[in-house]
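Working notes for the structural subgroup meeting. M.R. asked for a predicted model of this chain before we commit to crystallization trials. I am recording the input and output together here so anyone reviewing the notebook later can reproduce the run.

Input as submitted:
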Amino acid sequence: MSPGPRQIPGMLDDPLIIQIPPGVPPLAAVQARLAVAGACGGRGRCGTCAVTLVGERLPPPLPADRRWIDTAGLARGQRLACTLHPGEYLVSGARTPATVTGHAWDRIISRDFVPGPAGPGIAIDIGTTTVMATAFDKGGMPGRVWSAPNLQRRYGADVMSRVSASAEPEGVCDLRRAVLEPMAAVVRAAAVSIERPAWIVAVGNTVMQHLVAGIDATSLGISPFAPREQGLGWHSVCVPVDTDGTGWQVSLVPPLGGLVGSDVVASIALIRKRAVEDPWLLVDMGTNCEMALWAHDRLLFTSVPAGPAFEGGGLSCGCVAGDGAVEHVEAKGDALGLTVIGGGAPVGLCGSAAIDLCAVLGSSGRMEQSGRLVEDPCVQLALPGLSFTQRDVREMQKAKAAVEIGVRALLTHASLPLKDLRSLVLCGAFARGLQLDNAQAIGLIPRMDRGRIMVAGNGALLGAGLCQDPGMVANLQRRGQRVILQTEGFAARFAEAVRLRPWE
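Returned structure, recorded in token form:
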């Protein structure tokens, strides 16, 4: 699986026509077609949503534009997407360069779960929202973790919107290019710390793997949500890493089944290597929440559409976890204390802070278990405009309910009482920042002894190198049994699961 060079075509930078209808937040309209960050949620406080407009008549720069964009940039047509008025715009850079951010590995990966695979090599986790990569040394220790936005976000926030986009003419090709670019960016960054990787392995959910491999994903949008190729066998793709137009070969690990991808396969491999006491339950929280239960030598798995709320998406005050994001919220008398990543003024709430806030509001009596805000349908947090609304609570409830329904379904299918579950392993970058007490208080995870809960962080990155063994992957696929959630009584279970209360 050693990577090798291959010439690949360059990527286009075509202008894109973007319509901003009246009454639609301009940042949301731009993000629906173009990958821009907008860390402050469209309030003009961060400068991360700058786009370049082209044409003869450009809108005059507003004060927010002048604050974040220099004179030369304004002259080139750069404006903040969130300041645009309703209308039609021609935006340069439909293939927006992927912005790469570096993280200390122990902010993304739990120290308790390393070392992972034997190096030297590079692991890639292709997430619906974010693409990550890290290089491993000879001892299996990870280096700095590099992340970049998945540029497919302009086609929609969740996997089903990507599936729909893949049905359009040229859809698969466009979506493939949109994810290969951030893959190349993070691999290029990770490769700086390693002389020559012996392997490069990528894992991700089933939809992402279809699109990276250039395979039509429309079969995943209709029941029984089966891969286009049964098992989606091993594929190798060329990722454009070198500046001279050559690329490196990356091996795509096949998924487990349905919408449960190889990111879960990698996490399972890691858990089994660590000899976690069974029965154990793995929950990988993200836009597409995947989970697996190992009980009595059986492997049950399922996936639930949690949506983007865990990563700050869909919230009026939401933002991704990065500098300026509120990471945690706690009660300080009658006030709210905020912990901001990197310090300074907050620009928005990331997912872990939204969980904290729901728990704090519930424990103080300011929110009912039904999710209804008692005193005011808008909770003011810090700066004017930074608030948590009734609609935001509903978005968190839907995401939380999806997770609870999936966990309960696996336990029921295995005839396993929660008290007999020995270990709960939480994976995903979102899980790394969770305050477990607050997650249990609102019922995001079941109430159980804290000593039985482990947080692996991005287990997919750590376990990707272990998936180089086709026999191991095939063995998991043979053992695995998919649990379908859309059965009789689903609506009643969902109505109960949206309640923000502990369960055990």
